[in-house]
User: Fold this.
Amino acid sequence: MINEVIAVFLVLLVFKTGAELWLDRLNRANVLRFADSPPEAVREVMPDETYRRSVEYTLAKNRFSRVETLWGAAILAAVILSGVLPWYYGFFGEGGDRPVWAEGLFFVSTLILLSLPSLPFEWWSQFRLEERFGFNKTTLKLWISDRIKGLVIGFAIGYPLICLLLALVGWVGAYWWIWGFAIFFCFQLLMMVLYPMLIMPLFNKFTPLPEGELRKRLMELADRTGFRAKTIQVMDGSKRSAHSNAFFTGFGRFRRIVLFDTLMEQLGERELEAVLAHEIGHYKKGHIPRMLGLSAVMVLLAFGAIAWLAESAWFYQAFGFDPETAGLAPAFLLFALLSGLVTFWLSPLFNIMSRKHEYEADAFARDSVGEAEPLLRALRKLSEKNLSNLTPHPLYSAIYYSHPTLVEREAALRNA
Ligand code: ZN
Assistant:
Protein backbone atom coordinates (compact mmCIF):
# COMPACT_ATOMS: atom_id res chain seq x y z
CA MET A 1 0.00 0.00 0.00
CA ILE A 2 2.84 2.36 0.91
CA ASN A 3 4.47 1.93 -2.47
CA GLU A 4 1.17 2.40 -4.27
CA VAL A 5 0.54 5.73 -2.56
CA ILE A 6 4.02 6.98 -3.39
CA ALA A 7 3.59 5.72 -6.96
CA VAL A 8 0.31 7.68 -7.27
CA PHE A 9 2.09 10.76 -5.89
CA LEU A 10 4.86 10.43 -8.46
CA VAL A 11 2.45 9.86 -11.32
CA LEU A 12 0.43 12.95 -10.35
CA LEU A 13 3.60 15.01 -10.00
CA VAL A 14 4.99 13.90 -13.35
CA PHE A 15 1.63 14.49 -15.05
CA LYS A 16 1.21 17.98 -13.68
CA THR A 17 4.81 19.02 -14.28
CA GLY A 18 4.73 17.48 -17.75
CA ALA A 19 1.49 19.31 -18.55
CA GLU A 20 2.93 22.63 -17.35
CA LEU A 21 6.08 22.24 -19.42
CA TRP A 22 4.13 21.12 -22.45
CA LEU A 23 1.73 24.08 -22.19
CA ASP A 24 4.72 26.43 -21.93
CA ARG A 25 6.14 24.89 -25.09
CA LEU A 26 2.85 25.20 -26.96
CA ASN A 27 2.54 28.80 -25.92
CA ARG A 28 6.10 29.61 -26.86
CA ALA A 29 5.64 28.04 -30.29
CA ASN A 30 2.43 29.98 -30.82
CA VAL A 31 4.04 33.29 -29.84
CA LEU A 32 7.01 32.62 -32.12
CA ARG A 33 4.70 31.71 -34.98
CA PHE A 34 3.13 35.19 -34.89
CA ALA A 35 6.28 37.04 -33.80
CA ASP A 36 7.01 38.59 -37.18
CA SER A 37 3.51 38.72 -38.61
CA PRO A 38 0.87 39.34 -35.95
CA PRO A 39 -2.72 38.42 -36.91
CA GLU A 40 -4.79 41.24 -38.38
CA ALA A 41 -6.93 41.56 -35.24
CA VAL A 42 -3.79 42.09 -33.15
CA ARG A 43 -2.22 44.54 -35.59
CA GLU A 44 -5.33 46.68 -35.28
CA VAL A 45 -5.08 46.99 -31.52
CA MET A 46 -1.35 47.19 -30.81
CA PRO A 47 1.44 49.16 -32.51
CA ASP A 48 4.13 46.94 -34.09
CA GLU A 49 6.91 48.15 -31.83
CA THR A 50 4.88 47.42 -28.68
CA TYR A 51 3.89 44.07 -30.08
CA ARG A 52 7.56 43.13 -30.55
CA ARG A 53 8.29 44.13 -26.95
CA SER A 54 5.33 42.04 -25.75
CA VAL A 55 6.67 39.02 -27.65
CA GLU A 56 10.09 39.43 -26.01
CA TYR A 57 8.50 39.85 -22.59
CA THR A 58 6.32 36.77 -23.06
CA LEU A 59 9.27 34.65 -24.20
CA ALA A 60 11.41 35.81 -21.26
CA LYS A 61 8.62 34.94 -18.81
CA ASN A 62 8.16 31.62 -20.58
CA ARG A 63 11.82 30.63 -20.09
CA PHE A 64 11.66 31.68 -16.47
CA SER A 65 8.45 29.71 -15.90
CA ARG A 66 9.97 26.49 -17.24
CA VAL A 67 12.91 26.65 -14.83
CA GLU A 68 10.62 27.58 -11.96
CA THR A 69 8.27 24.66 -12.70
CA LEU A 70 11.11 22.14 -12.68
CA TRP A 71 12.57 23.60 -9.50
CA GLY A 72 9.20 23.49 -7.69
CA ALA A 73 8.62 19.88 -8.72
CA ALA A 74 12.15 18.85 -7.65
CA ILE A 75 11.71 20.48 -4.22
CA LEU A 76 8.33 18.82 -3.68
CA ALA A 77 9.65 15.40 -4.70
CA ALA A 78 12.70 15.80 -2.44
CA VAL A 79 10.61 16.88 0.55
CA ILE A 80 8.11 14.03 0.16
CA LEU A 81 10.52 11.22 -0.71
CA SER A 82 13.40 12.08 1.65
CA GLY A 83 11.41 11.53 4.83
CA VAL A 84 12.39 14.97 6.10
CA LEU A 85 8.81 15.78 7.13
CA PRO A 86 8.34 12.96 9.71
CA TRP A 87 11.90 13.61 10.92
CA TYR A 88 11.12 17.30 11.47
CA TYR A 89 7.77 16.36 13.11
CA GLY A 90 9.80 14.43 15.72
CA PHE A 91 11.17 17.71 17.07
CA PHE A 92 7.68 18.75 18.09
CA GLY A 93 7.23 15.87 20.55
CA GLU A 94 7.27 12.10 20.62
CA GLY A 95 4.35 9.82 21.41
CA GLY A 96 0.67 10.55 21.01
CA ASP A 97 0.20 13.68 23.06
CA ARG A 98 1.57 16.62 21.20
CA PRO A 99 -0.02 19.81 22.42
CA VAL A 100 -2.03 21.76 19.85
CA TRP A 101 0.47 24.65 19.91
CA ALA A 102 3.28 22.27 18.89
CA GLU A 103 1.23 20.69 16.09
CA GLY A 104 0.34 24.15 14.82
CA LEU A 105 3.96 25.24 14.98
CA PHE A 106 5.01 22.19 12.96
CA PHE A 107 2.48 23.07 10.27
CA VAL A 108 3.27 26.79 10.02
CA SER A 109 7.04 26.50 10.34
CA THR A 110 7.19 23.79 7.66
CA LEU A 111 5.28 25.97 5.21
CA ILE A 112 7.56 28.91 6.00
CA LEU A 113 10.69 26.80 5.50
CA LEU A 114 9.32 25.43 2.23
CA SER A 115 8.74 28.94 0.93
CA LEU A 116 12.49 29.68 1.16
CA PRO A 117 13.65 27.77 -1.95
CA SER A 118 11.46 29.99 -4.15
CA LEU A 119 12.94 33.24 -2.80
CA PRO A 120 15.80 33.40 -5.34
CA PHE A 121 13.21 33.00 -8.07
CA GLU A 122 11.07 35.82 -6.70
CA TRP A 123 14.18 37.98 -6.57
CA TRP A 124 15.17 37.12 -10.13
CA SER A 125 11.65 37.72 -11.41
CA GLN A 126 11.53 41.19 -9.86
CA PHE A 127 15.09 42.46 -10.27
CA ARG A 128 16.10 40.77 -13.51
CA LEU A 129 13.02 39.97 -15.57
CA GLU A 130 10.68 42.81 -14.63
CA GLU A 131 13.64 45.19 -14.46
CA ARG A 132 14.69 44.38 -18.00
CA PHE A 133 11.30 45.48 -19.32
CA GLY A 134 11.11 48.58 -17.16
CA PHE A 135 8.41 47.28 -14.81
CA ASN A 136 10.41 47.04 -11.61
CA LYS A 137 10.12 50.02 -9.28
CA THR A 138 11.00 48.14 -6.07
CA THR A 139 14.26 48.66 -4.22
CA LEU A 140 16.04 45.70 -2.67
CA LYS A 141 15.42 47.22 0.75
CA LEU A 142 11.67 47.49 0.14
CA TRP A 143 11.60 43.96 -1.30
CA ILE A 144 13.28 42.51 1.79
CA SER A 145 11.05 44.45 4.16
CA ASP A 146 7.99 43.23 2.20
CA ARG A 147 9.13 39.62 2.64
CA ILE A 148 9.71 40.04 6.38
CA LYS A 149 6.44 41.86 6.90
CA GLY A 150 4.59 39.19 4.93
CA LEU A 151 6.17 36.48 7.03
CA VAL A 152 5.29 38.14 10.35
CA ILE A 153 1.70 38.86 9.26
CA GLY A 154 1.29 35.37 7.82
CA PHE A 155 2.46 33.86 11.07
CA ALA A 156 0.35 36.18 13.24
CA ILE A 157 -2.81 35.21 11.32
CA GLY A 158 -2.01 31.66 10.23
CA TYR A 159 -0.70 30.29 13.49
CA PRO A 160 -3.74 31.04 15.72
CA LEU A 161 -6.05 29.90 12.91
CA ILE A 162 -4.38 26.51 12.44
CA CYS A 163 -4.22 26.00 16.22
CA LEU A 164 -7.95 26.70 16.45
CA LEU A 165 -8.67 24.21 13.65
CA LEU A 166 -6.42 21.56 15.22
CA ALA A 167 -8.06 22.01 18.62
CA LEU A 168 -11.56 21.40 17.22
CA VAL A 169 -11.28 17.63 17.17
CA GLY A 170 -10.69 17.64 20.94
CA TRP A 171 -13.71 19.85 21.51
CA VAL A 172 -16.36 18.49 19.15
CA GLY A 173 -15.08 15.05 18.13
CA ALA A 174 -15.50 13.27 14.80
CA TYR A 175 -17.44 16.02 13.03
CA TRP A 176 -14.72 18.59 13.72
CA TRP A 177 -14.26 19.11 9.99
CA ILE A 178 -17.74 20.58 9.53
CA TRP A 179 -16.94 23.07 12.27
CA GLY A 180 -13.56 23.59 10.67
CA PHE A 181 -15.26 24.40 7.38
CA ALA A 182 -17.62 26.89 9.07
CA ILE A 183 -14.78 28.60 10.92
CA PHE A 184 -12.51 28.75 7.90
CA PHE A 185 -15.24 30.09 5.67
CA CYS A 186 -16.16 32.81 8.19
CA PHE A 187 -12.46 33.61 8.40
CA GLN A 188 -12.38 34.07 4.62
CA LEU A 189 -15.36 36.45 4.79
CA LEU A 190 -13.73 38.38 7.61
CA MET A 191 -10.47 38.64 5.67
CA MET A 192 -12.30 40.02 2.62
CA VAL A 193 -13.25 42.96 4.83
CA LEU A 194 -10.16 43.24 7.04
CA TYR A 195 -7.45 42.56 4.48
CA PRO A 196 -7.94 45.77 2.49
CA MET A 197 -8.65 47.74 5.69
CA LEU A 198 -5.82 46.56 7.95
CA ILE A 199 -3.24 44.59 6.02
CA MET A 200 -2.91 46.20 2.62
CA PRO A 201 -2.25 49.64 4.21
CA LEU A 202 0.84 48.10 5.83
CA PHE A 203 2.30 47.73 2.34
CA ASN A 204 0.74 50.57 0.37
CA LYS A 205 -0.68 54.03 0.86
CA PHE A 206 -4.36 54.45 0.14
CA THR A 207 -5.79 57.89 -0.46
CA PRO A 208 -9.33 58.86 -1.41
CA LEU A 209 -9.63 60.07 -4.97
CA PRO A 210 -9.19 63.88 -4.70
CA GLU A 211 -12.06 66.29 -5.40
CA GLY A 212 -12.34 67.40 -8.98
CA GLU A 213 -13.78 66.66 -12.38
CA LEU A 214 -12.69 63.00 -12.38
CA ARG A 215 -14.09 62.27 -8.94
CA LYS A 216 -17.36 63.98 -9.83
CA ARG A 217 -17.65 61.90 -12.98
CA LEU A 218 -16.88 58.63 -11.19
CA MET A 219 -19.24 59.34 -8.30
CA GLU A 220 -22.01 60.13 -10.77
CA LEU A 221 -21.40 56.81 -12.44
CA ALA A 222 -21.56 55.05 -9.08
CA ASP A 223 -24.88 56.77 -8.27
CA ARG A 224 -26.32 56.08 -11.70
CA THR A 225 -25.53 52.37 -11.48
CA GLY A 226 -26.86 52.12 -7.91
CA PHE A 227 -23.48 51.32 -6.45
CA ARG A 228 -23.45 54.25 -4.00
CA ALA A 229 -19.72 54.30 -3.40
CA LYS A 230 -18.57 56.04 -0.26
CA THR A 231 -15.06 56.54 -1.51
CA ILE A 232 -12.90 55.48 -4.36
CA GLN A 233 -9.38 54.73 -3.20
CA VAL A 234 -6.14 55.32 -5.04
CA MET A 235 -3.26 52.97 -4.23
CA ASP A 236 0.40 53.84 -4.77
CA GLY A 237 1.14 50.74 -6.87
CA SER A 238 3.95 52.69 -8.58
CA LYS A 239 6.01 52.16 -5.43
CA ARG A 240 6.74 48.59 -6.57
CA SER A 241 5.79 48.11 -10.18
CA ALA A 242 4.82 49.94 -13.34
CA HIS A 243 2.07 47.38 -13.97
CA SER A 244 -1.38 48.88 -13.62
CA ASN A 245 -4.62 47.54 -12.25
CA ALA A 246 -7.94 48.23 -10.60
CA PHE A 247 -9.81 45.95 -8.26
CA PHE A 248 -12.85 45.50 -6.15
CA THR A 249 -12.85 44.03 -2.65
CA GLY A 250 -15.22 43.33 0.21
CA PHE A 251 -18.99 43.04 0.12
CA GLY A 252 -22.09 44.76 1.43
CA ARG A 253 -21.30 48.06 3.07
CA PHE A 254 -17.62 47.12 3.26
CA ARG A 255 -17.20 47.12 -0.49
CA ARG A 256 -14.55 49.32 -1.98
CA ILE A 257 -12.98 50.07 -5.29
CA VAL A 258 -9.25 50.64 -5.60
CA LEU A 259 -7.50 52.22 -8.58
CA PHE A 260 -3.72 52.00 -8.94
CA ASP A 261 -1.99 55.35 -9.37
CA THR A 262 -0.28 53.83 -12.42
CA LEU A 263 -3.72 53.24 -13.96
CA MET A 264 -4.77 56.84 -13.28
CA GLU A 265 -1.66 58.02 -15.09
CA GLN A 266 -2.22 55.84 -18.13
CA LEU A 267 -5.93 56.39 -18.74
CA GLY A 268 -8.10 59.37 -19.54
CA GLU A 269 -11.27 60.28 -17.64
CA ARG A 270 -13.69 58.46 -19.92
CA GLU A 271 -11.50 55.37 -19.86
CA LEU A 272 -11.21 55.38 -16.08
CA GLU A 273 -14.98 55.72 -15.92
CA ALA A 274 -15.31 52.61 -18.10
CA VAL A 275 -12.86 50.66 -15.91
CA LEU A 276 -14.76 51.66 -12.80
CA ALA A 277 -18.02 50.64 -14.50
CA HIS A 278 -16.46 47.24 -15.21
CA GLU A 279 -15.59 46.80 -11.52
CA ILE A 280 -19.09 47.90 -10.50
CA GLY A 281 -20.37 45.36 -13.02
CA HIS A 282 -18.75 42.56 -11.03
CA TYR A 283 -20.66 43.75 -8.00
CA LYS A 284 -24.02 44.39 -9.67
CA LYS A 285 -24.02 41.10 -11.55
CA GLY A 286 -23.64 39.12 -8.32
CA HIS A 287 -20.20 37.75 -9.10
CA ILE A 288 -18.99 38.13 -5.51
CA PRO A 289 -21.60 35.82 -3.89
CA ARG A 290 -21.17 33.33 -6.73
CA MET A 291 -17.40 33.16 -6.22
CA LEU A 292 -17.97 32.88 -2.48
CA GLY A 293 -20.41 30.02 -3.01
CA LEU A 294 -17.89 28.18 -5.13
CA SER A 295 -15.19 28.83 -2.56
CA ALA A 296 -17.46 27.45 0.20
CA VAL A 297 -17.91 24.20 -1.73
CA MET A 298 -14.16 23.90 -2.24
CA VAL A 299 -13.40 24.57 1.43
CA LEU A 300 -15.98 21.99 2.54
CA LEU A 301 -14.50 19.39 0.20
CA ALA A 302 -11.01 20.23 1.45
CA PHE A 303 -11.97 19.76 5.10
CA GLY A 304 -13.80 16.53 4.29
CA ALA A 305 -10.68 15.27 2.51
CA ILE A 306 -8.36 16.26 5.38
CA ALA A 307 -10.61 14.51 7.92
CA TRP A 308 -10.71 11.37 5.80
CA LEU A 309 -6.94 11.34 5.22
CA ALA A 310 -6.30 11.90 8.93
CA GLU A 311 -8.31 8.73 9.63
CA SER A 312 -6.43 6.69 7.04
CA ALA A 313 -3.47 4.82 8.49
CA TRP A 314 -2.17 3.96 4.98
CA PHE A 315 -1.92 7.64 4.14
CA TYR A 316 0.19 8.48 7.20
CA GLN A 317 2.36 5.39 6.76
CA ALA A 318 3.02 6.11 3.10
CA PHE A 319 4.57 9.47 3.97
CA GLY A 320 6.51 8.13 6.94
CA PHE A 321 4.27 9.24 9.82
CA ASP A 322 3.19 6.89 12.60
CA PRO A 323 -0.63 6.71 12.38
CA GLU A 324 -0.83 5.62 16.05
CA THR A 325 0.86 8.67 17.48
CA ALA A 326 0.71 11.44 14.87
CA GLY A 327 -1.92 14.14 15.27
CA LEU A 328 -3.89 16.06 12.65
CA ALA A 329 -1.11 18.43 11.61
CA PRO A 330 0.56 16.01 9.14
CA ALA A 331 -2.79 15.53 7.36
CA PHE A 332 -3.21 19.32 7.07
CA LEU A 333 0.35 19.73 5.88
CA LEU A 334 0.31 16.92 3.32
CA PHE A 335 -2.99 18.22 2.01
CA ALA A 336 -1.50 21.71 1.66
CA LEU A 337 1.50 20.34 -0.22
CA LEU A 338 -0.23 17.79 -2.43
CA SER A 339 -3.75 19.07 -3.23
CA GLY A 340 -2.35 21.28 -6.00
CA LEU A 341 -1.47 18.12 -7.96
CA VAL A 342 -5.21 17.49 -8.29
CA THR A 343 -6.73 21.00 -8.27
CA PHE A 344 -4.43 22.03 -11.14
CA TRP A 345 -6.71 20.04 -13.45
CA LEU A 346 -9.76 21.96 -12.22
CA SER A 347 -8.33 25.38 -13.06
CA PRO A 348 -9.89 25.47 -16.56
CA LEU A 349 -13.33 25.18 -14.94
CA PHE A 350 -12.66 28.12 -12.63
CA ASN A 351 -11.30 30.12 -15.54
CA ILE A 352 -14.41 29.44 -17.64
CA MET A 353 -16.50 30.90 -14.85
CA SER A 354 -14.13 33.83 -14.35
CA ARG A 355 -14.04 34.65 -18.05
CA LYS A 356 -17.83 34.57 -18.20
CA HIS A 357 -17.84 37.12 -15.39
CA GLU A 358 -15.38 39.31 -17.26
CA TYR A 359 -17.61 39.35 -20.35
CA GLU A 360 -20.62 40.24 -18.20
CA ALA A 361 -18.74 43.05 -16.44
CA ASP A 362 -17.53 44.37 -19.82
CA ALA A 363 -21.08 44.40 -21.17
CA PHE A 364 -22.28 46.15 -18.02
CA ALA A 365 -19.56 48.79 -18.41
CA ARG A 366 -20.48 49.39 -22.05
CA ASP A 367 -24.17 49.78 -21.21
CA SER A 368 -23.62 52.07 -18.24
CA VAL A 369 -21.29 54.50 -20.03
CA GLY A 370 -23.46 54.33 -23.12
CA GLU A 371 -20.86 53.07 -25.63
CA ALA A 372 -18.12 50.47 -26.00
CA GLU A 373 -15.35 52.84 -27.12
CA PRO A 374 -14.01 54.10 -23.76
CA LEU A 375 -13.64 50.56 -22.41
CA LEU A 376 -12.04 49.38 -25.65
CA ARG A 377 -9.52 52.22 -25.48
CA ALA A 378 -8.82 51.43 -21.80
CA LEU A 379 -8.27 47.72 -22.50
CA ARG A 380 -5.95 48.47 -25.40
CA LYS A 381 -3.88 50.89 -23.36
CA LEU A 382 -3.67 48.39 -20.49
CA SER A 383 -2.49 45.65 -22.85
CA GLU A 384 0.15 47.99 -24.28
CA LYS A 385 1.42 49.30 -20.97
CA ASN A 386 1.54 45.82 -19.43
CA LEU A 387 2.96 44.20 -22.60
CA SER A 388 0.23 41.54 -22.48
CA ASN A 389 0.64 38.54 -24.72
CA LEU A 390 -2.01 38.89 -27.42
CA THR A 391 -1.36 35.55 -29.13
CA PRO A 392 -1.44 32.88 -26.42
CA HIS A 393 -2.04 29.29 -27.45
CA PRO A 394 -5.78 28.56 -26.99
CA LEU A 395 -5.09 25.61 -24.70
CA TYR A 396 -2.64 27.67 -22.67
CA SER A 397 -5.14 30.46 -22.16
CA ALA A 398 -7.89 27.93 -21.31
CA ILE A 399 -5.77 26.56 -18.47
CA TYR A 400 -4.16 29.72 -17.17
CA TYR A 401 -6.13 32.82 -18.19
CA SER A 402 -8.78 34.09 -15.80
CA HIS A 403 -9.50 36.92 -18.26
CA PRO A 404 -10.35 36.66 -21.97
CA THR A 405 -7.65 38.03 -24.28
CA LEU A 406 -7.93 41.56 -25.63
CA VAL A 407 -9.03 40.33 -29.04
CA GLU A 408 -11.79 38.18 -27.51
CA ARG A 409 -13.01 41.03 -25.33
CA GLU A 410 -13.08 43.41 -28.28
CA ALA A 411 -15.09 40.96 -30.33
CA ALA A 412 -17.57 40.41 -27.52
CA LEU A 413 -17.98 44.14 -26.89
CA ARG A 414 -18.69 44.85 -30.55
CA ASN A 415 -20.92 41.92 -31.32
CA ALA A 416 -23.49 42.15 -28.56
ZN1 ZN B 1 -12.98 42.11 -14.20
